[in-house]
Amino acid sequence: MMISGKKYDDFFEWCKANNCFIDDRISFKFTDSAGITAYANSSIPIQQTPLISVPTNLLLTYQNATDFFNWSIAKGGNLPTNNPNAITQLYLSHLKLNPEAKKSQWDKYVEILSLDLNQPYFWTVDQLQQLKGTDLYIKIQQDFATIIQEYIELLQILKVDILDQEKLQTATISHYINSHLPTLLDGKLPWNHFVSYLWSHCIFKSRAFPQLLLNNAGSDVGNINLAFLFPIVDLLNHKNDVVVKWESSNDINNKNDNKVLTFITQETLHVGDQIFNNYGNKSNEELLLGYGFIQENNNNYDYSELTLKLNEETINESLKFCDLQKHDNIVKRDCVSFELNTKEPIPDNLLKFFGFLSKLQTEQVLTLRSILDGSDELYSILLSKLDFFKNHKLPSSNLKPYRLTKQYFNCQRKIFQNSIDYLLKIQKSILKENNNNLTSNLVSFKTILKNDEIFLNSLLQSFGITNFDDIIQKDFLKQSLLLWIVRMSNIESYPSKEQKKLSSWDWLDIQETFREVANSIVIEKEDVMEFIEFYTNAFPKLSNEIPEVYDKGDWKIKQFIIADTVMDILVWTRKLTNEPFFIKKQQPL
Ligand SMILES: C[S@@+](CC[C@H](N)C(=O)[O-])C[C@H]1O[C@@H](n2cnc3c(N)ncnc32)[C@H](O)[C@@H]1O
């Protein structure tokens, strides 16, 4: 067996004495990185026969726990329903930590279950603080509250003493756990203590198998989360994508007419290969929270969540515009969560959701403008997430929790980087699709300037601006846009040749939008104040110096206030390049 120590010898003796089967080609060893680890001591070709089989009477089940506590619905009412395994967990705490517990058939098995677990619930306060700012940190806090509630409800129902109830509800829970951890590790913590229960809760999370396996097809499996402990097979570590089978069958030796539960792997194993189980393909967040480790290069199953807290009304309104269904996991009462992963770095409904958030009141549907504007907002949020995971300084300690945090941050960083890269590709392709020889729904201001030489010349003469990059450098973007919009509103005052040229942008509906805004706008004193400085710097200087552009039509300050609203409706400035695009109004996407 390789793995040495009295408790392991006793455990494997117990397995043998109870008719368990472990293929001779399996050995176990202890590794620092993964605890007990199974590996092949000679090659094992793919096979259909079990490598491990365990009589079902050795499994530690809900039934065993309810028998022990002498509990039944008729007698005690409902157990906390959120976690059907609560009573079995408490039973495990009793078996592991109650010195007065009578001998049970699982003693040798329970003995090898380590009290020293890696899940973040057991990290020190400092170590846990490193996760602050992540969704994982919020989940851990929520889990603490759920597990405390579960503990209190269960012990009340079973009439078992609840220890430190008041402290549990007031103490900073990780301080409290930390202060009791040494006693737990010594095996001396009372079995009915919350921290003992937290331990058995985590043992279940990291080792239990679904009860479903034990029920015959067609029978009522009850709660699908119901689980049991499966000695020996729970010594196998996890790897995503490994193909394994857990099957219930009759004992091949047919001793005692007992049923057995078996483990079969569909992998070809060479000498020295680790024999893995598959706990269900999991993301790193699930692995860290449930099992206390991270699988690097977990690209197929890793994901991150983008959670937005909004008021209920906004969320309800968004349902009309995006494919978010209330019953989907992503919509909760006051928040919406989107999963980002390698296969779908930017879910379609995420883009639509941001399009909805960026919708102007005048837009009846999601438009090209609102989607592009929303994609920029999304870009900023993803960028700040990326910055967080990239630049957050973590202590350079070699302790496991710090190493795990580093790995977790790295994996999250990769996900956000991938989503950002993908979002920029989406933006580019939207721009391309809507600005080609066949479709013109948008045009960049850069292109407009290139084609409107008279206007560009006027900027050169009066502001020394030679090209678009100069406009950015001299921080003159907004002013240039406003001047051009007012110029377009005055199109009819220019000579017919110039009019003809400018009318090549008629499809942008600048004049019509300008008229609509002019008819509805109420100009306040503050609006005038906002524009006065720019206006007095430019006028009447511009009308005097370049009358062919700035003394044709109406160039009063009011026109600029109107142009500012027109700009909100028609212009989108791409955050990444600072490049503005005029977009055809109300162009649904
Ligand atoms: C079902 S147990 C497996 C046996 C365990 N190694 C032991 O010592 O008892 C699950 C625990 O094993 C460890 N584990 C499982 N798969 C792992 C992996 N791929 N890398 C690191 N640790 C792993 C984690 O601590 C996890 O909580």
From TrEMBL:
Q: Where does the source fall among the domains of life?
A: Eukaryota
Q: Which InterPro entries match?
A: SET_dom, SET_dom_sf, SETD3_SETD6_MTase
**UniProt domain SET: residue ranges:** 24-280
Q: Which Gene3D superfamilies match?
A: set domain protein methyltransferase, domain 1
List membrane-spanning regions. none
Give the CC-aspect GO terms.
Answer: nucleus
Molecular function (GO) terms listed?
Answer: protein-lysine N-methyltransferase activity
Name listed for the protein in its UniProt record: SET domain-containing protein
Q: Which organism is it from?
A: Naumovozyma dairenensis (strain ATCC 10597 / BCRC 20456 / CBS 421 / NBRC 0211 / NRRL Y-12639)
The taxonomy runs: Eukaryota, Fungi, Dikarya, Ascomycota, Saccharomycotina
